[in-house]
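Task: sequence design from structure.
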C-alpha cells in the first residue's frame, strides 16, 4: 500500500505481535506504526549531537533511561491525568510520556512512549509507542483503541462465516478463503444498512436478561439476512421446475441453507 500511495501517510496499528524489529525496522518513509510495548523494554535516550571536529563513528543511542515499568514507579515524573475516548466511551487515565529509542526493536527511530495507569486499579499498567513522535499521548491511546473494530470483524468472520473452518493447504486456497469471508462480511453489513431492520423491543421480550443492548450485533444482522433469503426462496415462483407434490420438500433446501 505504501508503494501504491507514495504521497499518502499510512499509519499501521497493531498489537504487540507487530512491534518486533521484523516490522518496525523496515517501515517506509511514509508509514508510521503504533503498537504496544513491553513494560521491561530496554529504552535509550536519543544520541547527543556530535561536537564540531569530533572523531569516530557517530553514536546510535544515548544513555539508558528508566524502562516503562521503572518510569511508572518513578516519583520524579508526575502522572498526567486525562480523559480519553476509548472504544466509544470516555475513560479517565493517568499517563507518563517520553521520547526514546527502543533500539532492540525499532533501531534508531525516535519513538513517543506512553505509560498508562488505570486510576481505579482494575487494569495493570500498560505501555504504548508510536514511530510518529509528534502525536500526543491522547491521540496515541485513541488511535490504538481504533483497532478494536477490526478484531471484532475477524471474530465475527470466524464465528459466523466460517473463516477458520476450511482446511486450506495451498497458497491459492489461503489467498481466496480470507478475502471471500471478509467480502461476505462487508456485503452483509451493506445489505443491512440498506434493507435490514432490527426490532429492539421484540428482542428484549425474547431476551429479558439483556436489557443493555442498544444496537444489533453481527449475528443479529446475519440472522436478518438469513431470514430474508429464506423468505425469498420460499415465496419465489418456481422456474423451469414442476411443482413438487410434497410442499415440505420444497422447503427442505432453503431450510438447510438457513441452518
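Answer:
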Amino acid at each position: 500500500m505504501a508503494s501504491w500511495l507514495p504521497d499518502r501517510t499510512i499509519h499501521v496499528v497493531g498489537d504487540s505481535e507487530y512491534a518486533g524489529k521484523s516490522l518496525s525496522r523496515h517501515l517506509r518513509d511514509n508509514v508510521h506504526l503504533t503498537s504496544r510495548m513491553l513494560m521491561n523494554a530496554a529504552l535509550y535516550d536519543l544520541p547527543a549531537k556530535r561536537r564540531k571536529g569530533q572523531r569516530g563513528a557517530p553514536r546510535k543511542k544515548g544513555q539508558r533511561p528508566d524502562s516503562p515499568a521503572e518510569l511508572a514507579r518513578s516519583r520524579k515524573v508526575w502522572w498526567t491525568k486525562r480523559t480519553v475516548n476509548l472504544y466509544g466511551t470516555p475513560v479517565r487515565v493517568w499517563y507518563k510520556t517520553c521520547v526514546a529509542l527502543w533500539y532492540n526493536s525499532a533501531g534508531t527511530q525516535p519513538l513517543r512512549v506512553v505509560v498508562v495507569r488505570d486510576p481505579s486499579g482494575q487494569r495493570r499498567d500498560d505501555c504504548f509507542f508510536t514511530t510518529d513522535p509528534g502525536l500526543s499521548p491522547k491521540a496515541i491511546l485513541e488511535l490504538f483503541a481504533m483497532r478494536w473494530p477490526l478484531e471484532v470483524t475477524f471474530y465475527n468472520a470466524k464465528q459466523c462465516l466460517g473463516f477458520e473452518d476450511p482446511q486450506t493447504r495451498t497458497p491459492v486456497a489461503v489467498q481466496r478463503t480470507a478475502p471471500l469471508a471478509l467480502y461476505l462480511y462487508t456485503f452483509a453489513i451493506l445489505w443491512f444498512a440498506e434493507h435490514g431492520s432490527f426490532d429492539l423491543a421484540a428482542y428484549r421480550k425474547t431476551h429479558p436478561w439483556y436489557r443493555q443492548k442498544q444496537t444489533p450485533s453481527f449475528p443479529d444482522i446475519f440472522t436478518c439476512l438469513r431470514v430474508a433469503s429464506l423468505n425469498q426462496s420460499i415465496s419465489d415462483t418456481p422456474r423451469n421446475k414442476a411443482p413438487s407434490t410434497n410442499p415440505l420438500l420444497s422447503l427442505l433446501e432453503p431450510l438447510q441453507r438457513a441452518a
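Residues 151-258 form one domain.
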